[in-house]
Every structure is written in structure tokens, then in C-alpha cells.
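User: C-alpha cells for Glycerate kinase, please.
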Amino acid sequence: MRVLVAPDKFKGSLAAGEVAENISTGLAQTGALCVTLPLADGGDGSVAAALSAGFEPHRCEVADALGRARTTTIAVRDGSAVVEVADSCGLTTLPAGALAPMTASSKGFGEAIRYAVGLGARRIVLALGGSASTDGGTGMLAALGYEFLDGSGMPLQPAAHNLHQIEGIRTENAIDTRGTDLVVASDVASPLNGPQGAAVVFGPQKGAGGADVDRLESGLQHLVAVWARAGFRAETWAQTRGAGAAGGCGFAALALGAQMSSGARFFLDLLSFDDHVSDADLVVTGEGRLDGQTLAGKLPAAVAARSAPTPVVAVVGRNDLTSHTALFRDIYAVADFAGSDTSRDRARTAEALCTIGARIGRSYSPAPTDT
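Assistant: Done. Predicted C-alpha cells:
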């Protein structure tokens, strides 16, 4: 039996490659022939997934969320580059247990984009998950040569706490990205502003209290007005699905002329999923938690749709579905095998995934025939 093991990460526990490896270890115990294809949907882990699929790593120096120097990795192959917020200036770059909702910056992400442009990438995939900031992408754009000016015409160091002070935008020194195809691969639906926007929905996850959320929301509204006064289509950008991703980096990407794409579907194409599934008798996919959002188009659902008619089994950390779905032939949850929540216990999660892989192998292996 040939099995394609193509999961997303188990967020906070195991990377997609580790999930795939442990499931495959269990499957191999039953004689299954496994091919692993760690996947991503444009969130954190996107660079790692691209590297697992054969992209080459390129390391560059950037500023983390607090402006400290760090090394990030971008993935490059055949003129395409994958650049990620999470590993450049995301939440994981903050000191352990610390959050900085008003001071964290997206500058490091812009520096990584600039590095990819310098490599001559013809297409740059912007992976926006795992961000620490809500600066409307001003830090990102500043790293690309945009200047944000105060009321006296003096340049500001852009950050969420001083969005209200921005009164002008200077673009003369911005790098030219017109020869580069910029793609935001994301399944975040939030616009920049409003009750479903960057500040209200994602601000609390980054440590913003009620007053902070209000200040962030009004600061982002002010930023849109400044862009509009400068003659840009800022109101349209702000209302676009995905503009609120990564604290407004989606909005900033639209200012650069980026195209929005479904993260799940885009990465399936980027990582040549169809070529891999064509030889499989069974597909195993999954993510940390299976719920109603999964069925609305997240990665496991996209895998199931693209795999048909090949049967698909989902392996997840937790199964929070309240009704049956025909998308998956079976659903296995680590929590059911481990007896408790293992989301922060890497060793127990890995052990449970091996056990589940063996269970799947025994359940789906062809029955022996008489000779």
C-alpha cells in the first residue's frame, strides 16, 4: 500500500515534518510504503514546508519583533521565494512569556522581502501567520524604503503606538518591486479594520487589552486615511479580504501590488501535491485541531478535495467537530490515544502519532490473498 502523508503542523507541538515522520514510522511497521509531504497554508511553518519539498535555504539578518538582530531563513527554488513573518519578527522571536502589542514591529519581515528581491526572485510568496505586531505593515514597508512622516515632515520610526502620529508617506526611496510577482498566500479573511479586523480579532492574541485594542483600531483607521490622502486606493485595500492578516501586513502587501490567494490551495500547487497524490492508494493529512473552520477550507479540507477519489484519513491533535463529515474516511485524534491533552508534550504527541500510523496501516492494508 502506497501512502502519501501530507499534514500541516500541530501548532505549539510538532512541525509538519515531524508530524509526517512519526505517522510514517507507524505506517511503515505494517509494511506501508510512505512518501511524506509536509504542508503549510501560508502561516508559520511555510518556509519549513517549502524546504522539505526541495527549496534551498538562504539565511539573512533581520530585526526581530523588538528590533534585535536575528537570522531568518527564506526558501528559494526556480525563481520563487517563500518569506515568513513568524520566523523573522513573529511571536516566537519575543522573549519567553513576553508580548509587545504596542511596540512590536514588522520591520524584519520587510528586510526578508528585500533580501529575496535582491536574490532576483521573480515570485515572492508572503506567509503571514504568527505575527507579533499590529503596525499596519508600516515596519515592513519602512524596510523597503517607504518613509512615514509626522506633522513636521520628519521621518517616524513606525510602530503600532505611533500610528496616530503619521501624517504623510514618502515613496521616492522605495525599492522597485514591479518586476516581482508578490503573492499573499493566506486563508485569513479579516479586513484591516472593524469588528473582524486586525486589532479586534488578533490584537488580544498579541497581548492587547481593551484600551490597546481601541488605540490600535483607531491608529489603523488613521493610517488608511493618510494613505488615501496621498492618492492611494487605501479604502479598497483596507476592506479587502486578508488585509488584516499579520497585523495589517496584508494591507501593506496590497500597497506593493500583491495578489491575494488561498493559502491552502496555493501551497498545494507550490509543493506539487497533485504529482504526489497521483501514485497514492491512501492519503493521510491533519492539523492540531479539527473543527468547523477546517471544513470551511483550511488545509486538511483542501487536501481531501484535491485527493478525490483517493481516500483520505485525518490525524489531528483534537477533534472538535460536533457532526459527521464525509470529507475524511476516518479521523484519529491524538487526545483519544494519549488520554489527555499533549499539545505541549512533544514526546507524547510523537508517540501517539506512531501508534495512530500503525493503526491506520493495519486498518487499510489490503487483506492477504490465498495463493
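User: Anything notable?

Assistant: The chain has two domains: 2-38+287-364, 46-263.
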